[in-house]
């Protein structure tokens, strides 16, 4: 518990130096009563993102160990909340060309996008698009743009490019259901299969969970199907078949293609379920020598890296040894940048904890390499609920 200074004229407590929005709550962190201190910390954790600057200021000058610990815990909670917010975009397209739209998408995602044309388009493709999108979550904005520009979004295998835009296809994003803070969106993709249909005891229904491109999902559980009912409310889900595996890019999406259900003559199906995600909300980054060996403490791990350039091939080998404070999941990125800071290449490094990467060319003198490891993570349950899906 904090001991208040006898002469406030010469010693000012942290709460007195903080902006006026938080002093009373900060003062309660030093209250004699434990429940009052607990309530003060809970109030800080729910104070909203606007409180972060004041709270960081207070923690920086705090001298009482318990109060500082509680302030730092509240800061971490608010920073996690901020990290999970969606990428918001404002796009003002006026007679925008395809190149204009792709450039806007790549800027929002920070990754290159592949572009294709459907060889047998089922939609006329406009030569240009006029559309204004104001401060919308990325996937919601993509749903609007895909309808206006007559494209669909295809997703690659694990660790592939961000996404592929296919012009001339009907958009599956029309089925988008944004969830949580808008960073996750579930869609069903009837174009992957013409319709929900019965096949050897399975209703086949492509479901995809879209993850905001800025989030780093470092783990997930199988998809859980909690309920499936017909139009009369009758359950079609056998109790023993509520957990299905999924596939997809761990940075972008997850997909479940087959749902085992009781045979029925129902006309429509409603389903409800969820999936559990582990998302990195804080990271540590260190620069490593382009060639040679180094060991650093990064993200709660002792990370050894050995890099070399032999016969025109650049190689990097990593060994991650976790300490008790390390997050349980490993997710790391290795990035090469030129002397101006331009990114040259990027590789994702994950489980198992020993990894090696190789590039088929040398890099110019002055090239720098950076390793980023998740240092804090949160777990989220992301639900889905689709009603009145046609069965025939």
Order of helices and strands: HHHHHEHEEHEEEEEEEEEEEEEEEEEE
Strand proportion, as a percent range, falls in 35-45%
Q: Oligomeric form of this entry?
A: single chain
Give the mean pLDDT. 77
Radius of gyration over C-alpha positions, nearest whole angstrom: 25 Å
| Shape label | globular
Secondary structure: number of strands: 21
Put simply, the count of helices is: 7
Structural class by SSE content: alpha+beta
Q: Helicity range of the residues?
A: 10-25%
The biggest sheet, with number of strands, parallel, antiparallel or mixed sense and barrel status, is: 7 strands, antiparallel
How is this structure best described in words?
The protein is an alpha+beta fold and 392 residues long. Helix content is 19%, strand content 42%. The chain is built from 7 helices and 21 strands. It has helices at 14-17, 23-28, 34-45, 52-61, 65-83, 98-109, 138-149, and strands spanning 88-96, 114-117, 129-137, 151-154, 164-167, 177-179, 184-188, 197-199, 202-211, 216-220, 223-230, 243-244, 253-260, 268-288, 292-298, 301-310, 313-322, 331-337, 343-350, 354-359, 368-390. Strands 10, 11, 12, 14, 18, 19 and 21 form a 7-stranded antiparallel β-sheet that branches. Strands 6, 7, 8, 9 and 13 form a 5-stranded antiparallel β-sheet that branches. α3 (34-45) packs parallel to α5 and α4 (52-61) runs antiparallel to α5 (65-83). The radius of gyration is 25 Å and the shape is globular. The model is unreliable at 1-18, 192-196 and 245-250 (pLDDT under 50).
């Amino acid at each position: 518990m904090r001991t208040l200074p006898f002469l406030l004229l010469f010693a000012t407590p942290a709460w007195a130096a903080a902006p006026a929005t938080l002093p009373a709550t900060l003062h309660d962190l030093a209250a004699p009563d434990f429940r009052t201190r607990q309530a003060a910390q809970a109030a800080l954790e729910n104070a909203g993102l606007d409180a972060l600057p004041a709270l960081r200021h207070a923690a920086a000058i705090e001298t009482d160990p318990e109060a500082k610990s509680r302030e730092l815990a509240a800061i971490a909670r608010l920073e996690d909340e901020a990290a999970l917010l969606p990428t918001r975009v404002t796009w003002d397209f006026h007679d925008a060309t395809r190149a204009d739209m792709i450039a806007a998408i790549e800027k929002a995602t920070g990754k290159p996008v592949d572009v294709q044309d459907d060889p047998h388009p089922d939609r006329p493709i406009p030569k240009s698009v006029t559309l204004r999108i104001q401060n919308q979550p990325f996937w919601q904005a993509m749903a609007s743009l895909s309808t206006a520009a007559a494209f669909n979004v295809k997703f690659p295998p694990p660790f592939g490019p961000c996404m592929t835009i296919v012009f001339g296809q009907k958009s599956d994003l029309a089925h988008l259901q944004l969830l949580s803070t808008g960073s996750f969106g579930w869609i069903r993709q009837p174009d992957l299969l013409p319709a929900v249909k019965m096949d050897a005891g399975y209703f086949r229904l492509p479901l995809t969970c879209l993850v905001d491109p800025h989030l780093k999902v470092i783990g997930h559980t199988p998809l859980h199907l909690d309920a499936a009912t017909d139009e009369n409310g009758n359950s079609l889900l056998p109790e023993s078949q509520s957990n299905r595996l999924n596939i997809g890019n761990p940075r972008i999406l997850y997909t479940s293609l087959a749902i085992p259900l009781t045979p029925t003559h129902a006309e429509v199906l409603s389903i409800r379920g969820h999936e559990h995600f582990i998302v990195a909300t804080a990271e540590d980054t260190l620069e490593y020598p382009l060639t040679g060996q180094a060991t650093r403490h990064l993200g709660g791990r002792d990370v050894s890296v050995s890099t070399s350039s032999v016969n025109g091939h650049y190689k990097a080998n990593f060994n991650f040894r976790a300490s008790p404070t390390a997050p349980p999941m490993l997710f790391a990125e290795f990035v090469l940048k030129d002397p101006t800071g331009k990114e040259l290449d990027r590789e994702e490094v994950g489980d198992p904890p020993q990894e090696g990467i190789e590039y088929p060319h040398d890099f110019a003198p002055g090239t720098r390499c950076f390793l980023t490891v998740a240092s804090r993570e949160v777990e989220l349950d992301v639900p889905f609920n689709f009603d009145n899906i046609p069965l025939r």
